[in-house]
Each structure stands twice: as C-alpha cells, then as structure tokens.
Structure of Nitronate monooxygenase:
Amino acid sequence: MAAGSAMVDALMARGAAFLGTRHAILAGAMSWVSERHLVAAISEAGGFGVIACGAMEPPRLAEEIAATQALTAKPFGVNLITMHPRLDQLVETCLAAGVSHIVFAGGLPPGGAIRRAKEGGAKVICFAPALALAKKLVRSGADALVIEGSEAGGHIGPVSLNVLAQEILPHIREVPVFVAGGIGRGEAVLAYLEMGAAGAQLGTRFVCATECIAHPNFKRSFLRAAARDAVPSVQLDERFPVIPVRGLQNEGTRRFLQHQADVVRRFHEGTLGKEAAQLEIEHFWAGALRRAVIEGDVEGGSVMAGQSVGMVQREEPAAAIIAELMAQAAAAAARRGDAGR
Ligand SMILES: Cc1cc2nc3c(=O)[nH]c(=O)nc-3n(C[C@H](O)[C@H](O)[C@H](O)COP(=O)(O)O)c2cc1C
C-alpha cells in the first residue's frame, strides 16, 4: 500500500505542484454549493477547493474570498463564468484579494482576461472541450486545462470523458491537464493519471460532504439517486435550442418539457415571436438551482448532478472523501505493482 501511495503521489506530482496542494484533486466549483465552508474544508483536507462565483457581483465575491481566507491558509481557486457582464471586474477582485488560481468556465475566455489574470500574478485554468481548442487555449496562455466529459453534473458538452481523455491527453504536454466528469472512485483517478492526466476534478462526490451547506433535501436526493437518474435536459424543438444540463429528473424537468411544448404552440399560433419564445424557454430555470440547493425544493428546482451520483453513499467530512479516493487509487496502484513482479 505504501508503494501504491508513492506511485499515486508520483503520478500526481505535477498537478499537486501546480495547485500547491498535497493531492491533485480539485473540487469543481458548483454554483450555490461551493462557498466558503466546502471550499475551505477541501483545501484543508489536502485537495483544491474552488469558489463558484456564478452570478455574484464583485463586492459579494470579495466577501466570499475573504471569508474563505479566514477559514484556510491553503490555496484555493475562484471559478468565473466568462459570460458574466462584469468579468473584468471579477478578475480584478480576485487579484486584489491575492487569489492564486482563476478558473474560467462557461465558454472560451477573452484573451484580455487571461492576460490580465496572469499579469496580476494568478495562474489560469480553462476548460477545453476539444483538442483544437485545448491547443488554442495553451497558445492564449492558459496555465492548465480541465477536460470535462458529458458524465458530469451541471452544464455539459456532448463528449464523454473516456473519449476526451484519449483525444486530448496524449497531445497536450505543455501544461497540466485535469480530468472531470463521472469520477467517483480512486481507481478511475489512477487510470486517468496513467493516461497522462495531472489530476482529477470531482463535483458530485463532494455535495454530501458534511461541511457542504446544501439543504438536507438536496443531499438526500443525491444519496437516493442512481447513475441513470442523472440525465441531460431535453430539447423539444430544434429551432429552440436548450443548453444541455445534467441533473436529477423531477417535477421540474417534466414541467420543462410541457413549458417548451406550450411555447412552441404559441410560436406556431403567432402569439409569440421567435426571440421571445427562446427567452421564455431560457428563463424557465432562472433561480432554479438556488431553490433546490438553498431552499430544498428538489421537486420544482434544478438538482444538477453527475452520473457519479450513484457512488454518493453517505454524508461524511470532505477529508474522509478525499482520503477514501486516495486509498482506492493507492490500493489499485499497489495491485499493479504486485502484478508486475
Ligand atoms: C450542482 C452543480 C453545480 C455546478 N456549477 C458549476 C459552476 O458554477 N461552474 C462550473 O464551471 N462548473 C459547475 N459544475 C461542474 C463541476 O464544477 C464539476 O466540473 C463537475 O461536477 C464534475 O463532474 P462530476 O459531477 O461528475 O464529478 C457544477 C456541477 C454541479 C453538480
């Protein structure tokens, strides 16, 4: 087992050095979920916590960063959504607070934002949805990449991590690449490390951490769900695109289908223009993640979750989750060592 741990540590060395952590395990930012308590608990446990800025305004983000810094002196990151209308100010807020790593999510970040973050002393992490974009992001100055498969919870791309890893890992050696999506156990972390990943990012597995402030109803839904319950949002009509989001099926997802059908009918009747119809579809989920995570409305709200939800089996401290992942990876590595003898 000690030899297994040493193997895992060696495979994680580049990622851990980049993050400044004991282990190359990131807790992916989750809007409303990844706030001071979970982020600090992850970082204190030797992982890398990431604050989800979501729709926060700069002063609110500054407050959250300061509160996290009061709970941990260990490194953590801040996840900024590139569509945020005040992206530049949010970058300045992170830099002023001395945040070491900025994660740009939700689309390709403008080159200026990457440059400014780096000039200000932060390391920049970006999401790469395909090899060509991974190369482009490295050229634009990204210091590390995350490749996230469609198994993940929240907003997703169309390609599984299994395929993205094969497409991207062998070709990007200039910067560390972290893998995300559907990872629930340490054996999988080890397998991706062996394929060339620098570390792994998990979201779903951390929702039921004791320190996570998500409503007990939200955590209970995770504890009860199986992998097949975490499905992508369904688009009813190709003229009205729906951004794919993976979450647990509930009354809200069923009502969303009905809502799309009503909107399309009104569009056909001529009582609703195309643009207004698209907006009505997009507005359906406004505030829905907050309702589920904070208020506990897991029937009407949005219960974003990845396919690894079936591997969430108990509420336990973040440190226990990380220790279990690392022990599973080490045991699997030790078995590899034994087989080689
Ligand atoms: C409830 C929830 C909210 C999320 N919110 C965000 C977000 O605000 N920004 C982001 O980049 N990713 C977000 N994600 C994705 C996670 O950061 C992470 O990459 C993903 O959960 C990894 O896949 P996994 O859930 O299979 O572990 C969210 C995921 C979940 C489950």
